[in-house]
Fold this sequence. Notes:
Elements: H1 18-27, H2 45-55, E1 65-69, H3 75-83, E2 89-94, H4 97-106, E3 113-117, E4 130-135, H5 145-152, E5 155-166, H6 178-187, E6 191-197, E7 203-209
Helix pairs in contact: 1-3, 2-3
Amino acid sequence: METTPMSGVTATGEPVHLAGALELAARFDLPPVRPENRVPTSCLPGVGQLLATLAASTSVRPEAVVLEFGTGAGVGTAWLTHGLAPGARLITVEAEAERAAAVRALFAGEPRVSVVHSDWHTVEPPRGGACLLFADAGLRHEIHPPAWDEIVDLLDIGGLLVFDDLTPPGGPTLLDNEEDKRRFVFGHPRLRGVEVAVSAESSVLVAARHA
């Protein structure tokens, strides 16, 4: 299988909106790379591939809803859309007005994607719950026990919660909320989770709501 070294995806499998999202990432100084001693500010390729794979599970559920908190430049949005089933919807929430407007324009021709300029607290739980929630920067400072149930309640039974921007065990901790994320995923009674390394320097938490 041929891969492109810059994107890490097959030469014919790049998400349709990824190039435009990467242009926005450059414009907003949100590079999808991991600089030394810094977390990436847009979705890394390995994380994106995982998101597209998880989003593909929407094909088994009619009218499935995927949520993304922290749209940024739309890089993660592009990967999620890449895996999204034809009848599914993606609602991505961004607190910065300029970013939200730019990503909304990028996805203007994609009826499955809604870009909302708002705070995640204003999002109404989808009917039946979301099948996937990618909690990016939108929850960065709020991963504490008082908010745990509110976040879990957004998911359907069997729905998946994804956190990125973690360092694999043994590596340097670059964000002060990495352990908050782990405590949430491994400590909440309605979640079952696992930490998955997507590169030598970066890992992702994936949890399923089971009750």
